[in-house]
Amino acid sequence: MASTVYSFALAGIDGQVVEVETDTMLGMNAVSIVGLGDKAVKEARERLEAAITYSGFVFPLVKIVFNLAPSDMKKTGTHYDLAMAIGLLLRSNQIPEPKNLHEIAFIGELSLNASIRGSSGILPMVLKAKEIGIKKIFLPLENVSEARLVKGIQIFGCEHLREAVELLAGRREPKEIEIHEKNKPPEQFPLDFRDVKGHENLIHYVVIAAAGGHNLLMIGPPGSGKSMIAKRIPTILPEMGEKESLEVTKIYSVANLLHEKGTLITRRPFRAPHHNASTNALIGGGPYAKPGEISYAHNGVLFLDEIAEFSRKTLDALRQPLEDQMVTITRVWGSNAYPASFMLVGAMNPCPCGYFGQEKCRCTDYEIAKYRQKLSGPIIDRMDIQKYVNNVNFFSEKTPSISSDELKKYVCDARKIQEKRYENIPGISFNAQLTPSLITEFCPLDAETTSLLQKAYDRFKYSGRSLHKFIKVARTIADLEGEAKINASHMRQSLLSRDLEKDAWQLQGG
Length: 510
What we know:
The protein is α/β, with parallel strands linked by helices. It contains 21 helices and 18 strands. It has a five-stranded parallel sheet with strand order 11-14-17-10-18. Strands 1-2-4-3 form a four-stranded mixed sheet.
């Protein structure tokens, strides 16, 4: 009868149970691994033979078949080695079958000398194990700190195959691994909005964007401070909750990007890919449908500097994730879904030379319009706030700039109002996530405010999405001011938030 032990596969950022079935039969000495495994899985046969022999066991000289079930799910990686080795030793009666084998799982890659190497994606695998009732997991020693982020499950760290066998049989006590709890205060950001001078109006809209999770586009000449401001946005965002931290940590675990594997990621991500990034690098993809920058920026900020220099195809690929807050990458063998709820911040020059509105600019209206058309209408439409950034006179007297800590307090207060308002609505945490039906419910407009929005529509012929964004931005402004209802003053500030659209309308002769 075939032996069955448990391991896990990854589907997106979630773990999936894999039953590793092992059987031996009379026939020519051979090893077959079935179950839709990739090349790394198929190559396990050599690693298994060397590791089992090195550990002092006998590699059976018969026909050996491993089945990774379910067989219609793609299996990638080398972390099935340990489960296959244990299954083969059980099937060949070289080790006794432990009690409650169905409550034990195995993860880890074997080397030729039987040591167990670390694997990526441990956190989602252990979470899945806990979900299905697994009580014990045997995994590489270097992954123990990451696995112990999940409470209520026994973790056994193993350095080599022989140690795993003895732990399984109860002949060895598990090592006491000292996990240093990192309770140090959060690391201070080296950047601060106090360094930004002369952009009071722009910073006001940056705070609005941060408070409501709105997308932001800054347009200005070189050296005006666009990148400087964008890099400071994470300093005013609220701290992530435990659920958000877990989501981000799972993504980075799957991508093998965790630098401190014993702790959750608590700082909101800030990703700034170069403008030559491919569509797969930005959205996700490749042969195994890996996550891209938009998923690495989940619950944080994706900053596209020189956004007009990105390929139009790459930028247009952002359209669906910006709406759905999720990206699904499909391949012939299946698909992976990754969360992608991020605040998009873009920066661009106003014209090809970068000095639009200044004497040294010689760009024609046609050249300016053509340059701005590198951003398609649907992408512009999805940028809630579009503000011009002007150069600042370095030698003029400036009012003292407000610090990031002070701005963060305003943002956090507004976010708390939103969290309380939407606490019973799944998937909604801040204003930018509101659907049309929820806008009707939570953003009622009085007659004066409706009339103001109607006049703006009559003049600029905004799309329905743009009108909804005006209302959502106005809702955020009201939250920052502690107002329960949106009034005309909030809507006026919101209508002043989309400079690029109005300028484009004028360039077209509106």
